[in-house]
Amino acid sequence: AALIVRFLTRRFIGEYGDMEFIYSHNLTVDGREILFHIWDAPSSQQAEEGSSEEKRIQWADSFVLVYSICDRASFNILPLKIQFIKAAKEGQNQEKVPIVIVGNKRDLHHQRVVSSEEGRLLALSLDCGFYEVSAAE
């Protein structure tokens, strides 16, 4: 949620609950106006395979999966989530679904438990994009 609010408003708010929100945002990209719909769904520590998770996957055209570089469990759940997304999306039409892995809290490098290299290697092995960012900065 902090990363989405930062993207939408350029402000940082540090505390959020575990609620889902859908945001809409217009952005001009290469001279074209693009309307984004962003479904912010807080992740449980296990891959959900229920109807709400499937509904979100079918709704979306692309995925940004965010983990905390200070929380190993949030990183470890990514392979299962990505496999679930790919099975649901790519099985239908054989097109590659755009997925980006984002390590957040880069500013808290003194609390880091997941290295940048681990993030890059995971993204490479799962054919995803990779970035490290700080919503706070």
From TrEMBL:
GO molecular function: G protein activity; GTP binding
Reaction equations catalysed: GTP + H2O = GDP + phosphate + H(+)
The enzyme's E.C. designation: 3.6.5.2
GTP-binding keyword on record: yes
Pfam families the UniProt entry points to: Ras
Keyword tRNA-binding in record: no
PROSITE patterns reported for this sequence: RAB (PS51419), RAS (PS51421)
Keyword annotations from UniProtKB, A to Z: GTP-binding, Hydrolase, Nucleotide-binding
Class of the enzyme per the UniProt entry, highest EC level: hydrolase
Signal sequence, renumbered to the chain: none
Family the entry assigns: Belongs to the small GTPase superfamily. Ras family.
PANTHER family reported in the protein's UniProt record: RAS-LIKE FAMILY MEMBER 11
Protein's name in the database: small monomeric GTPase
Organism: Pedionomus torquatus (Plains-wanderer)
